[in-house]
Amino acid sequence: MKLIYGLSVRNRKMYFDLKNRNSFLGAKQLEFRINSIDDDSEMEDTQYWEIISEECKKKEIKISIHMFDSINLGERVNCVREVYLKAIKKLIDLIVGVGGEYIVLHLGMGGFSYESHKKKERLMIVVDSLQMLLSYCPSNIYIAIENMIRIESAYKCYLGDCKEDFLFIFDRIDDPRLKMIFDVGHANIKQLVPPIVFIDQLYNKILAFHLHWNDGNSDQHNILTENWMMEYDQLWKGYIMDKPIIIENNNIIDMHKTIRILTNIIKDTKK
Ligand SMILES: [Zn+2]
Predict the structure, then answer these.
(1) Side-chain half-sphere of 2: how many Cα atoms within 13 Å?
(2) What predicted TM-score, i.e. pTM, was given to this entire model?
(3) Distance 183 CA to ligand 1 centre (A)
């Protein structure tokens, strides 16, 4: 079988490097990152998106867009949350305009430990935010929410750092347009359950996987290794390889290495 993969495009420079020198390393999907919501945001660069839309149509490459990391869907100051929601609606308009398929959102952060009772209150705000976005979102576009790393701190945590957060949300929102991105690297950092438990319970909600690796302590976005593949053999064969994968390394060289490793593994996989 043949490996089909997408790449995370970190910024404008990386897009043009991939386009000019490497013809996108053979990727069938590009996931574009938005690095701010200010005036200099990629979102405002109409020319950039015209080039992308035309090129991807020509090469039959699918498009998804990853929203700015610092957006907080659980923001409790309403006028601030409005700014975030407005920016995401703009992103929905953009993904429609470029003929893309989905947007990726992080849920946001809270200023308390992951064990705090306040997390549930913030998740309720997240649910409200997502409902508002879904009421704006057309039927052919998905909103995909991503799992985050767990931080051992009394002062902060990510919303969406455990499977319970996603079960909480999907229990309250039953909408085929709401999906999740399972980030394999994030699931390696201080999680309470192995990824397979997490994935098993949410598999039908998973739209795609993000692939990168780390030392278990910080979100390094390293290349996958042969060891990773051995350790994740069951996960790979049973779950990951059946859905779209997006390689999320820091640079083109590392993504190239990850593709080589995956290609070797797939040669030995009979399915
Ligand atoms: Zn990711």
Answers:
(1) 4
(2) 0.95
(3) 5
